[in-house]
Write a structure and sequence with these properties.
Length: 289
């Protein structure tokens, strides 16, 4: 089988969501508009969740209305936490992907989306049907996909079981999410080498949170095991505010791009625009940290 092309997702939503200082809507919109010029495959740009849960992203619909998508190849992804959010997101023709965090940890599922895993799986089935009707693609993130801090049961076999349930629902994109940065190269390797051949109709992604010292070994392990979808955030900013108090940063996009380019991957990134976006990210997040 030919190796699929690399799909690169930039995640400003993940970078912004934990910031206490509200970024004004026009500032957010201008930043996202700049990111749309770089050539990323996907932009995880906002979320349709309770404004009480994530106040920073309460203006996602307004931000979307301000974006000009006529000159970009980048497709938009919005995160949703329940069926109501999915219906809101699906009502926007500009959005291609709906992302839903399904947790391998019962505790985190309750903390993150206020429901049990069983309820969340029922939501996934309904969301997938909604996406099929509306011409969208559902991306399921397996949160706590590499372990959890709550003492909930965890093993690669549990991850495989979740994946089997998602594959049975015909979910076609599953991203393993290292919500708290506990993944190791050995675990990343074993998970992807087991799952990728076992579920040929599923495209697997890696949403890794890392420290500045561990990013290379993690992305290398995922890539060498056959993963071709990667999420990053410029500057490695952000993480999950629902998970732990100490934020382990996102995978820095500039590191991802350097690594993948070194593997000979054609990413379609406009280098000058990319450098400009790095500068804009540094300015934005310094001003609103």
């Amino acid at each position: 089988m030919p190796t699929p092309p690399v799909i690169l997702t930039e995640c400003p939503r993940d970078a912004m969501q934990g910031l206490a200082d509200f970024i004004p809507t026009p500032v957010k919109t201008a930043y996202l508009q700049q990111l749309l010029t770089v050539g990323f495959d996907v932009l995880d740009f906002g979320s349709f969740v309770s404004p009480k849960a994530i106040p920073q992203l309460r203006d996602t619909a307004e931000v979307l209305a301000g974006l000009d998508l006529s000159q970009t190849r980048t497709r938009l992804l919005a995160i949703v936490a329940n069926l109501r959010g999915a219906e809101q997101a699906a009502s926007h023709p500009e959005i291609s992907y709906l992302g839903f965090p399904l947790s391998v940890s019962e505790t985190f599922q309750r903390r993150n989306t206020n429901q049990t895993i069983a309820q969340a799986l029922a939501d996934v089935a309904a969301m997938h049907e909604l996406c099929e009707r509306r011409g969208k693609t559902l991306v399921v993130y397996l949160s706590m996909g590499f372990g959890n801090p709550y003492g909930d049961p965890y093993s690669p076999a549990i991850v495989a079981d979740f994946t089997a349930q998602l594959a049975a629902l015909d979910v076609r994109i599953v991203a393993l999410s290292d919500t708290i940065g506990v993944s190791t190269p050995a675990l990343i390797t074993s998970l992807f080498t087991e799952l990728i051949p076992a579920f040929p109709h599923v495209a697997f992604g890696a949403h890794l949170h890392t420290t500045p010292l561990t990013w290379l070994e993690k992305v290398q392990a995922a890539y060498q095991a056959g993963c071709r979808r990667f999420d990053g955030a410029l500057g490695g900013i952000g993480g999950c505010p629902m998970a732990t108090d100490v934020l382990t940063g996102n995978m820095a996009t500039e590191n991802l791009v350097a690594f993948l380019a070194g593997q000979g991957e054609e990413l379609g990134i406009a280098q000058v625009k990319f450098a400009g976006a790095q500068l804009a990210a540094a300015q934005l997040f310094t001003a609103h940290h």
